[in-house]
Amino acid sequence: MTPSDKAAELRERLIRNFNDVPRERLLRPPRYDTETASLSDGTAAKKLGAGFDILAPGQIACPYHFHHAQEEMFVILQGEATLRVAGEEVPIKAGDVIFVPPGPEYPHHIVNTSDAPLHYLSISTQERPEVCEYPDSGKVGIFTPGLRFLQKRDAGLDYWDGEP
């Protein structure tokens, strides 16, 4: 393998440019409208995940939630918005780096309260299996390779249900 081939292979496995990665629009009117791109998919990353997001004015990135395992970080690249966290509304702006540890003390989501798009990086530790809770809707989600399961918290079964 020539050095240029090796460099090209390393670039493919280790580097993503958020301006070049295709984005997917996640739209659920009237409150949710974001464009997102996975940066870590297909890389050599084992423990970190990263995405690039553009949140439309007046919209919410995702439902209010907290993680039981994953820690998250958000790097605000462009714009202003509000971080709803732990029941409070905290203004955020370009240059801010937000750290959200796992646990019920820090339910969170980002709301674009401005009239311009918000650009940010979302980074997480990608622990699996992961359990997320959604305080506004009372849902619980379980996420692991091959399983994505959401249910209302109060709709649980008895441990012995269906067992012989």
Describe what you observe in this structure.
This protein is mainly β and 164 residues long. The chain has a domain at 29-127: Sandwich (Jelly Rolls). It contains one helix and 13 strands. The protein has one helix spanning 3-14; strands at residues 24-28, 32-38, 49-55, 66-67, 72-78, 80-85, 88-93, 97-100, 108-111, 118-124, 130-134, 139-144, 147-152. The chain has a six-stranded antiparallel β-sheet with strand order 1-2-3-10-5-8, with no helix packed on it. A four-stranded antiparallel β-sheet has the order 4-11-12-13, with no helix packed on it. Strands 7-6-9 form a three-stranded antiparallel β-sheet, with no helix packed on it. β1 and β2 (32-38) form a beta hairpin. The model has no long low-confidence stretch (mean pLDDT 95). Residues 54-123 form the Cupin type-2 domain. This is Cupin superfamily protein. Keywords: Metal-binding.
Task: Considering the chains and any ligands shown, give keywords for the structure.
single chain; 164 residues; mainly beta; Jelly Rolls; six-stranded antiparallel beta sheet; four-stranded antiparallel beta sheet; 7% helix; globular
Q: How are the SSEs ordered, and which strands pair?
A:
Elements: H1 3-14, E1 24-28, E2 32-38, E3 49-55, E4 66-67, E5 72-78, E6 80-85, E7 88-93, E8 97-100, E9 108-111, E10 118-124, E11 130-134, E12 139-144, E13 147-152
Antiparallel strand pairs: 1-2, 2-3, 3-10, 4-11, 5-8, 5-10, 6-7, 6-9, 11-12, 12-13
Protein name: Cupin superfamily protein
Pfam families: Cupin_2 (PF07883)
InterPro entries: Cupin_2 (IPR013096), GPI/OXD (IPR051610), RmlC-like_jellyroll (IPR014710), RmlC_Cupin_sf (IPR011051)
